[in-house]
């Protein structure tokens, strides 16, 4: 029996098995590498605006602390469960190891629909969640960040709550904070910028001119919107976008700035009338040079993978492609250049690492320095991945995950088993 279950955790486990088989990791070592070190489940009661009391379930999973503190986002969503959180923590471990950060993976969440609670209730819930987590987190134990349903304001509440209990301001307990509260320039844009940077690099390697290239972005939150903006600024034509409220397609190109302004004003793309609407189910099959799935897990299954008409698949979301779809993409390796999630969306945790460093040192960088260092790390990890893929004749996902798993395994082997 295990407390971890569900399709997302099963997917992470199957991916790990593929890598463990590829690396010939002995069976008796695998559970130690895969299963999280610690899982916390808490009840978060709050006073509601109508005078009643509601209790929300919260979770935090810390995968491993072998290389340093754990690092990972906190999502507020109605679908959150312990299996999903554990899977995301595992992926974060391989991601941090792949790009060379001194972190293990973590993830947290509360099962709540943020759209159904008030601003005051959101603050109360955020503060109560951090209060319950205080015995298990710290700047050198577990550092939180935003994710789906959370933002800079929630991180500020987290930081303030932790600081009140410590009796001093501890900005380094979370990343993704407002710049005025110890955040770093460039953090909000970091993940989307990283996705665009790698996509543009691949287009260049494939001799596809940015000025003639097209892109489709599924998901228009923080990651998708900034990826679209950075691609469009480089001359790439954004022909399709969509979120959970609707999708839009225009072969002549969409006005990304206008879309971002609408989403910021209304909270989604709902009621946007400046472009032709499209069935959201068709968005992923649109012909394009770059496809960016930047929404939820498991949106590309084997059926969708067979119908993809992109040249570059840049995974802005965590786990957007199922193991069955990976088998299809393996057969289409010469048609579709895959930039796997643990590399493609790692810009966020890279710049979160920079924020943590700046908070610890109380020395802050200019945005140009943040971006330069982010792209430098992304390029190095990209080179490692493609070199490994070519050497072993494996997919980019297998190569990227193999590097991450190997580095975590090597650290565990060096440190040994205590006691």
What is the share of helical residues?
40-55%
CATH architectural grouping of the largest domain: 3-Layer(aba) Sandwich
Whole-number radius of gyration?
21 Å
> Which residues form runs of ≥5 with pLDDT under 50?
none
Tell me, what is the CATH class of the largest domain?
Alpha Beta
Question: How would you classify the helix and strand content by structural class?
Answer: alpha/beta
* SSE string: HHEEEHEHEHHEHEEHEEHEHEHHHH
**General form:** globular
> What number of structural domains do the residues give?
2
Strand order of the largest sheet: 9-8-7-6-10-11-12
How would you name the oligomeric state of the polypeptide chains in this document? Answer: single chain
Number of strands: 12
Site (Important for catalysis): 147
Family: Belongs to the Glu/Leu/Phe/Val dehydrogenases family.
Binding site for substrate: 71, 95, 352
Organism: Bradyrhizobium zhengyangense
Task: Explain what you see.
The structure is a single chain. By secondary structure, the chain is α/β, with parallel strands linked by helices. The chain folds into 2 domains: 7-179, Leucine Dehydrogenase, chain A, domain 1 (Rossmann fold); 188-346, NAD(P)-binding Rossmann-like Domain (Rossmann fold, 3-Layer(aba) Sandwich), CATH 3.40.50.720. The chain is built from 14 helices and 12 strands. The strands form 2 sheets. A 7-stranded mixed sheet has the order 9-8-7-6-10-11-12. A hairpin with a 5-residue loop joins strand 1 (38-47) and strand 2.
